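Appendix B. One record, verbatim.
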Amino acid sequence: MPGQPWNPDEDWTENWQDQYRRPAKEEFDPLAYLGQLVPSHALWLMKLPDETRRGYVKHARELLRGFTAAEIDAAVSEIERMDAMPKMDFLPRVVARRLKAKRSARTARTFEIATGSDTISCLLCRDKGVVDVYYDHVVEAYRKGAVPRMHGGTLIEYQHCVACVCSAGQAIQKELQHLSVYRPEQQVRVVYDDLDKDMAFFEGITGPPQIPVVESLQDVIAYIKQLANRFQV
């Protein structure tokens, strides 16, 4: 229908490209906007089976919810500038991760400037108010033997955000009532961004990433190189 934004859930017609590029005049759809910036993502999405596409669209929209067009534009530009375009099914996740990191950095810097302190009161969310966790069905499939795609399997490590149990999380949950609250004993938190390692951490087999005491810039550089080698997959 003329004048309406393209809906990734429907409208698989011959003129889908024109609909995809038509700017939304009502509610902003970050996934549709992402497709305007990266047409190859729209092409990939179009080829998915209907049921798979519906599940993917729902998850991708959840990942991108709350981000503005300007933020998504900046993230995609940065990815393209660094020649770091991921596989199409990972694109929303990579964009969301970059934007959350930038927002977190801005929030932390604002807090430090306002208070003159770099103290973090909540180690779970680092005062962001939200915690990244894996979907329950992902964890269940992993426990039944499914291998994560990162390690050559077929299990997609879908993640989502929940409100932290700290005061910052409570404040966010009051504003975003659709956001569920983190259940530390049941939900697997994203720490390493590697399901194998995060499950081991959740079950107490391994500890959290360790940050050693450093005494010089050379120590910091050496530690960063060590982390890069450790998490290279």
